[in-house]
Design goal:
About 60% of the residues lie in helices and about 0% in strands. It is an all-alpha fold.
Amino acid sequence: MYALALAILLGYVVFSATRVTHGFVAYYAASRLLTAGQLGPTIYNDDWFQRFVQELTGSEVLEIFGPNPPTMSLMAVPVAWLDHTAARSVWLVASLAAFMVSIAMMGRAAGQSQVVPPVLLALVLLNSAVFANLRTGQAYLFVSALLAATCLSLVRGRASLAGIFLGVALALKSSGVALIVMLAAQRRWRTLGVALLVVCGAALLVWLSADPQTWVAYADYVQAFVARPSSSATAYQTTLGFARRLCVADAVWNPSPAANCASLAMAVPALILASAVGVTILVARDASMRHWLAAAVCLSELTLPVAAEPHFVSLVIPILLLWPFNELGRRRLAFLALVAVLLWIPLDWTAHVFTSGWTALAAYPRLYAAWLLWAAAVFAMIAPTEQPEALRHQGTSAPVP
């Protein structure tokens, strides 16, 4: 099954390699600017960046750099010297390889206590988010591999290595913020310190190579981006976007909301997310490391200001982290089946169909999957376990010296 999934994905890479789409062009264009010493605040001018991308690729593709940090310009530096087609081909192969290796390693680690069915690994690999990343050349296969490597390194007691992986993910895509919070709550100071050093190192490198005003433009752009009415589009599967879809009217992006509750659309999602982080910290004190890591990865996804289809590839991590344990009992397979439906159902059947009034409740399957996996991780942390004593304490949260 694993080999069949690999063959399917490699075939899709061949199909996607010569295309010019949004996604990869943002990394490629920014890295070209950085290596040429031309990176500046204009990358946060959407019109300017779109024109530059079109000139660089000879296409009509539309793409923006924001709301990503200036350090994202480091991402495609290894392939920036190639022309776009060659660079995209190398990028797709490398990102798929990184993701496949991370899934294989997580499956092996989970299998030490309970065999992961090959069909589950195949379904994980053939997730629609994987195809979305390969179709557009997005970076989230790399990000998922980095977060998976962070979790595996922590479980194996390699604190500094975990910090390196997490620091790279944070620097390149601001991914894994909730992991930083959990590391602090669990007093994983070595991992936390190394991660922050990596982030600071990447920021310093870009600071020295680009116009320092780029960072000011980044802060301004993020603040304005979050407030854009377009965040209510159902393609963005976020808690904030969900609330705005139901509550905030906009003539272009949301002409038929379910209710008039704009005053709640910002406050309630922030309260829900803050409460979820607080609950996770509270119940994680004496819990298995695998479980609180699974919850933290879910929260890292849920707290993103913008999350479209490619982002949700990271949810394979909590699925595999939770797999060896039996806290869900006989209901586990039914729960996983529900999560699978929410993760694999095409958004063309949901997010692009149910867009008005209360029907929009059916437009957020990826968001529901992320919240369900978080809830499963929390339940696993508080529920009694029937695992053997030695296995029960595997990867507990005792600090690494």
